[in-house]
Design a protein that fits this description.
three-stranded mixed β-sheet, about 5% strand, 3 strands
Amino acid sequence: MPKTRTKVAKADFAVESVADADSLAVLRLSGHWIITRLEGVAARLKSRLAGFAHVRVEADGLEALDSAGALALREAIDDRLDGEVFAEGSKFARLFDLVGQHSPELLAWEKDHPPEARFWLHPLFNALGWLGRLVMRFRNGFLKQSVFLGHVTTVGMLTVVRPGRLRWASVFNIMQRSGIDAIPIVALTSLFLGGVIGFIGVLQLQQYGGGIFAIDMVAVFALREFAPLITAILLAGRSASAFAAEVGAMKMNQEIDAMRVMGIDPYEALIVPRILGLVVMAPLITMISALAAMTGGMLAIWSALGAGPDIFIQRLHDYVPYYNFFLGIVRPPFFAATIAIVGCWQGMNVKDDVLSLGRQVTTAVVQSIFLVFMLDAVFAMLFNGVTF
């Protein structure tokens, strides 16, 4: 039989003035005068009784009383009580008398320990406090990330020296899940975006009689900038979140602690294979992305300008230097390493609750995309004017 919950009434009161008496109020109590149901009633009662010299209390509707409620009554009534509050011998009367014996001590303690005065420039004080906490959080995060990167670098170098320790099955599994399985979505996205760039290029360049130059624009943009960037963003959305969720779930279930107890380095078993697998697959996915983007651009230019695939390929061969491809293919390994490290790092920071897991997964995706854009800007500045 299901249990029914009894509703606990809030503490309440009513104050009536007595017409034939000089400044006498009748206070009628009701509800539960306990600490969880007071909810500011003490301040309202004090304010309501402020103009009366004597207070008579009727407690017929009072259902419960604890020390907090008794103290609230004591402070509101003070020495203006007319008669008795409760019948002699009742449990409420004993508690009310007990609180009354210690009430002067409590009031004296509050008088001797007033709340600390806030700094007169408290908005500035609070802003400086917030800035200090932010700096300390950044410092602690930087130190922890440095330790994590140092551990990953050390394990990676040991793996190069002793390749037999690498878990090749995990590497191939990551290459399958994070690389090959990502090809369809990366190719389709690049195809559509390449088509959009082709349409816009033809539309703009036709105004100057140079619509055919849209081929050069699509090819250079796809090979040098677009393919590495869109691949990295999609990998950040898929792989960074997956790595953070997988490592974080193992951290929540204490599987990583169990690995350490068994003498297995989680960095060697979990993190290095993920970094290596993604770094190996990123250039391949980037090449497929570039081909898909140029295919989309070719179809768009063909439909808008009438320049077919033979013209597109011939112009690509004659006017688009090959170094654009090499300048684009240099970036994906760095992007992939960043994505994998951020995903695993956020996974290792998961606490013991599901909310923490969701928060770290979201942080992994956001940080990965931010760092990819930052690295791309650095590469763009480094490769500015580079030809070979």
